[in-house]
Specification:
By secondary structure, the chain is α+β, with helices and mostly antiparallel strands. The protein has two domains: 17-107, Probable tRNA modification gtpase trme, domain 1 (Gyrase A, domain 2, 2-Layer Sandwich); 134-324, Elongation Factor Tu (Ef-tu), domain 3 (Beta Barrel). The protein has eight helices and twelve strands. It has helices at 37-45, 89-100, 109-120, 137-142, 148-151, 188-194, 209-218, 321-331; strands at 27-33, 57-62, 65-71, 79-85, 154-155, 201-207, 240-241, 243-246, 252-262, 267-274, 284-289, 308-315. The strands form three sheets. Strands 6-10-9-8-11-12 form a six-stranded antiparallel barrel. A hairpin with a 4-residue loop joins strand 9 and strand 10 (267-274). Helix 1 (37-45) packs across helix 2 (89-100). The longest helix is centred in the first third of the chain and has 12 residues, at 89-100. It is globular, with a radius of gyration of 22 Å. The mean pLDDT is 92. Keywords: Transferase. Pfam families: GCV_T. Residues 26-122 form the GCVT N-terminal domain. This is Aminomethyl transferase family protein.
Length: 334
């Protein structure tokens, strides 16, 4: 740790806009992605895009500025995440927009941006496993009361008195294939102990459209308390969304996390972590939607509501067939 580890280093935090009182950041960040992304970037730089492995960085020249380009994907298609000094951002963005007109470039906006995770199969915010263990006590005590780890909300129908039940492993998040024990790293011993254990599996859940429509209809029913409001397109109402997933015996078999509506798939989708015997595509499960106490503990931030069961069907990760094909090729270096 830079402050407590005795290292001869300096660091600078580049806070997101919602937590940045200066109104500016150190680095801009744009994402260009889709079937024509490479052609667009080549037209901007005047040269072929360098051969780049997935999640590696190259440099491009755009509008006279050097731009760092991370081979990345937020929606499962070919593209790059572009970044550079903040003051150069407007010129780079304007050049991208102007050149993009003949390639069909669209600025999708922030609401659509956050829905790409459903199709890609990326769980963006698992609860950090920092709230237990004596070895992490100094870190917890170092954190200010205003830190995200202290102020962000934990919500959903899954309820357990043990915070450990909210922790997710690299295997459950879909990162098991990235773990290599051919070098030393922090946490290696713990992961080696877990490697051959039984792991829950990350899946997509496609919510039953009739059950979703029933939830929406409940808002107009004045004879009973409505179901928890579903926001569109991003329906996650807590930073750490943990909804219980049940089998046909009402037994908890996992958790549903990031949830919302995908226009491309014309479906209400969530990303879930399930016991392996329920992870086969086509398996029917139930998502319990709404807080255990109907929102009483979270008032006035959550409206009073009743819990409802929403049927769902297990589907692959990524859900998008286009994303599955592209990411498989990208990881093979194509």
């Amino acid at each position: 740790h830079a402050e407590t580890g005795g290292w001869d280093v300096t660091y600078e935090r580049d806070e997101i806009f919602t937590q940045n009182p200066t109104g500016r950041r150190t680095v801009y960040r744009f994402q260009v992605e889709g079937p024509n992304a490479f052609a667009l970037l080549e037209s901007l730089s005047g040269a072929p895009v360098p051969e780049t492995r997935f999640f590696h960085i190259v440099t491009l020249r755009i509008a006279g500025h050097e731009v760092w380009a991370l081979r990345h994907s937020m929606a499962g298609g070919p593209g790059f995440e572009l970044f550079g000094p903040w003051d150069e951002g407007p010129a780079v963005k304007q050049a991208i927009i102007e050149a993009g007109r003949r390639f069909g470039l669209r600025q999708v906006g922030s609401l659509a941006y956050f829905t790409t995770a459903f199709e890609l199969g990326w769980i963006p915010r698992p609860l950090p496993a920092i709230y237990t263990g004596e070895e992490l006590r100094p870190f917890r005590e170092w954190l200010p009361a205003t830190a995200n780890e202290a102020t962000w909300a934990l919500g959903g129908s899954f309820a357990s008195p043990r915070v450990e039940d909210y922790y997710l492993t690299p295997w459950e998040l879909g990162y098991g294939h990235l773990i290599k024990f051919d070098h030393d790293f922090i946490g290696r011993t713990a992961l080696e102990r877990m490697a051959n254990q039984r792991h829950r599996v990350k899946v997509s859940l496609v919510w039953d459209p009739d059950d979703v429509a029933h939830v929406v209809r409940s808002y107009m029913d004045t004879d009973q308390r409505p179901a928890k409001y579903i926001e569109f397109p991003l329906s996650t109402y807590a930073t750490w969304q943990y909804d219980a997933v049940l089998d046909d015996q009402k037994r908890s078999i996992g958790i549903s996390t990031y949830v919302g509506f995908s226009w491309n798939e014309r479906a209400m989708v969530s990303l879930a972590v399930l016991e392996p015997e329920y992870a086969t595509p086509g398996t029917r499960v139930t998502v319990l939607w709404g807080e255990p106490d109907g929102g009483a503990r979270s008032r006035p931030w959550l409206e009073p509501h009743r819990q409802v069961e929403i049927r769902a069907t297990v589907a692959p990760v990524p859900l998008s067939e286009y994303a599955r094909a592209h990411l498989a090729a990208a990881r093979r270096g194509r």
